[in-house]
Specification:
By secondary structure, the chain is an alpha/beta fold. The chain folds into 3 domains: 191 residues, FAD/NAD(P)-binding domain; 144 residues, FAD/NAD(P)-binding domain (3-Layer(bba) Sandwich); 64 residues, no CATH class. Helix content is 32%, strand content 23%. It has 11 helices and 27 strands. A 6-stranded mixed sheet has the order 5-2-1-11-23-22. Strands 15-14-13-19 form a 4-stranded parallel sheet, with helices on one face. The N and C termini lie far apart (53 Å). The relative contact order is 0.14.
């Protein structure tokens, strides 16, 4: 209940798509009217929509142009931003612990701190799961964060410039890119990288030949790409990738990564000196049984349909880091649309809890379909099934219509955070300047 002396304290940990939307909406409803103090805690200073990271990695999106500053967003949306990474919890004291922040040289510039809460919402997303496979950590790159995407882009450019200027012939696999995992990230990344290589050749990297020295391969353990999505969508996507000469190896599970490539369980070696691991996710390790909260094998916090953790009604969790029941056997899939739906519900839930109510709404996942964006080559998807009263995935779209819907999802996310007017002006500005920019970030 709200105290006469101290305002109700709401802490949102994690400024991803769902966490930032939730903090912004709570700030507008409660923070602006001084009914509660909303604090967003995140380890980064800026926000970038995670579905765009593959474009940042390929260089087809400039992360510095699309990032949003949490401090500025907090000011405009009436929440307080605190920089830092949560690494501890004291449920008895209702406090979270935030690790010290250090610079690139390891020098501490923000000390360890604790923050008190009345309602705590944990939405820290997911990280790559390497399943302890030999050589993955040592020889693969990951795309969990904007920083990792930027690092990969720089590595890609250096590899290309090195190959273009070296006196010796290009080694087998020197510029090959192998992507482990054919989920949405791996599939979309392959198309963006193909586009990036074409741009580099166009800009004068004349020693390269996209038909010989460069090969992009996707390796998937399931019998088809996009195994979590409808088979028809997988077929459409695979045909589109085949048109741009992306190799697909399905039904092969990677058992080892080396400096020069991947080895599969069927004794197939895929030569590639540039390797990306996108074959599985888990919640961050610090969540595993944190202060007695229930977690699963993926480190996800187990929650009820109200999104309250099973052992503490004052702690909520949602998005990729939460295991929310969908039916008797399955949990809600780790997808952006689920996090968006859950954030909308949690606005009502937290307000009710603040008012002392115990009967909170329950989350029911609604699948509005999926979209796969293959750079400038194609966009395919299954959409609107539930809206039409049919089975989800029954309406297939592709081409310009699918591309328009895909772009509109990002615009909806921006509107939720920045408002319609600001997003409209930013979109207009981008349209006016887009033709004068190179399609690829070249530095």
């Amino acid at each position: 209940m709200e105290s006469n002396n101290k305002p109700y304290q709401i802490i949102v940990v994690g400024g991803g798509a769902g966490g930032l939307e939730l903090a912004s909406k709570l700030g507008k409803k409660l923070g602006k009217k001084k009914k509660a103090e909303i604090t967003l805690v995140d380890a980064n200073m800026t926000h970038l929509w995670k579905p765009l990271l593959h474009e940042v990695a390929a260089g087809t999106l400039n992360s510095y142009e699309d990032e949003l500053n949490y401090l500025a967003l907090g000011h405009s949306n009436h929440f307080t931003f605190r920089l830092g990474k949560m690494d501890g919890l004291d449920r008895e004291k209702r406090e979270i612990s935030v690790a010290p922040s250090v610079d690139d040289e390891g020098v501490e510039y923000i000390p360890r701190r604790t923050f008190s809460y009345d309602s705590l919402i944990i939405s820290v997303g997911s990280v790559t799961n390497d399943f302890n496979i030999k050589g993955i950590k040592e020889h693969c790159m990951f795309l969990d964060t904007r920083h990792e995407a930027d690092v990969f882009h720089q590595h890609l450019l250096r590899s290309v410039y090195r190959a273009n200027t070296q006196d010796t012939p290009i080694r087998e696999g020197q510029l090959n890119i192998a992507i482990a995992g054919a989920g949405a990230t791996g599939v979309e990344l392959s198309a963006e990288l193909h586009d990036a290589f074409e741009q580099l050749v166009t800009f004068g990297i004349n020693k390269l030949s996209r038909d010989t020295e460069i090969k992009i391969t996707i390796i998937e353990g399931a019998d088809r790409i996009l195994p979590a999505l409808p088979p028809r969508l997988s077929e459409m996507t695979e045909k589109a990738l085949q048109k741009i000469n992306v190799d697909i190896i399905s039904g092969h599970r990677i058992v080892e990564a080396t400096e020069t490539g991947f080895m599969t369980d069927k004794d197939k070696f895929v030569p590639a000196e540039i390797k990306i691991w996108a074959a599985g996710i888990k919640a961050p390790d610090f969540l595993k049984e944190i202060d007695g909260l229930e977690s699963n094998w993926m480190n996800q916090l187990v929650v009820n349909k109200t999104l309250q953790t099973t052992r503490d009604e004052n702690i909520f969790s949602f998005g990729d880091c939460a295991a929310c029941p969908m039916n008797d056997e399955q949990t809600v899939p780790p997808r952006a649309q689920a996090a968006h739906q859950q954030a909308n519900m949690l606005v009502k839930s937290v307000i009710r809890q603040m008012q002392g109510e115990t009967n909170l709404p329950e989350y029911k996942y609604v699948d509005y379909g999926s979209l796969i964006n293959l750079s400038r080559y194609s966009t395919v998807g299954n959409m609107m099934g539930n809206l039409l009263g049919k089975k989800a995935g029954s309406v297939m779209i592709e081409g310009l219509l699918a591309r328009f819907v895909y772009l509109s999802l990002y615009k909806m996310h921006q509107v939720n955070i920045q408002g319609m007017i600001r997003v409209a002006f930013l979109t207009l500005a981008n349209m006016l300047t887009e033709k004068h920019k190179p399609r690829m970030k070249l530095h």
